Known about the structure:
Layout: H1 6-21, H2 26-44, E1 46-48, E2 51-53, E3 56-61, E4 65-73, E5 77-88, H3 92-98, E6 103-106, E7 111-115, E8 119-124
Antiparallel strand pairs: 1-2, 3-4, 3-8, 4-5, 5-6, 5-7
Amino acid sequence: MTTQDPAVTNKTKVINMKKDLNNMTMNELKAELELLEKQKENVTTTKVGVWEVGKHYVIRTVTMIDVGKLIAVTDDELVLENASWIADTGRWNEFLKNGTYSESEPFPDGKVIVGRHAIIDAMIWKHGSVRNVK
Length: 134
């Protein structure tokens, strides 16, 4: 029984993938991109209780809705970076499903600390950072 060198096998897969990209439809390319994003998240995220550090979240507190990348979890706070206050989500379902919103105000670059005792609910945000004023 012979085994293939994994480096050769992986190199062949990469070459085949590059070749196949030219023949993919837009939907196939989107699916491939989503798969690669999930693989990237699995490498760059860490579980802390129910939280996944390294993923983007939408966090609804008693007074605000924030979106940002979770970078730390403490007993009393969550720390976000590249965060924005979403002043008006529009329809909540559309906001969560499509990432659409009516108004946003990004925090200046840096860390934003959210008190965990003020959180109503939170969910993973699949639409990346919101950095525009709208």
